[in-house]
Specification:
185 residues; mainly alpha; 86% helix; globular
Amino acid sequence: MSEIVNEAWRKYRIQLQSYPLRTKAITAGVLLGVSDGIAQKISGIKKLQLRRLFLMMLYGFAYTGPFGHFLHKLMDIIFKGKKDNKTVAKKVLLEQLTSSPWNNLFFMLYYGLVVEGRPWSLVKTKVRKDYPSVQLTAWKFWPIVGWVNYQYMPLQFRVLFHSFIGSCWAIFLNLKARSVVIKQA
């Protein structure tokens, strides 16, 4: 079994080296799809909602993978590849003040408008209501992930690491949302 895993990892790294953007996009899409499938099961959905799953995979493929690819390349250019504690702190701060608020807002809009198919007025109201608490919660968790990512992950694995943690985070948020619903019932 370990030979199969080692061979798959070797081939993945070759793809990542040869086609970094494509590989990161596919990886992000697959991880978001797996995350959404797990989230659907945990939330009690009996039959897998394939449209929702596909739209989440599309979001990962078309947005989070490419965005992460270019964000991390840009951060390395801005900070010249440095990894000392002061530079890592600056990277985390810059990421949390720019891409984190944007990514959370964009995801909430995409999920409401595209995945759930709600009208703009309802999505706008929900974003106004929920965005501040979503962003504050993100600022409690994601700086730690950012620190680990910038301090220890090689550039080519940062999107993979971030996408994997993001998938786990999505499952956690789904469980939290579900427990709130159960408590209210």
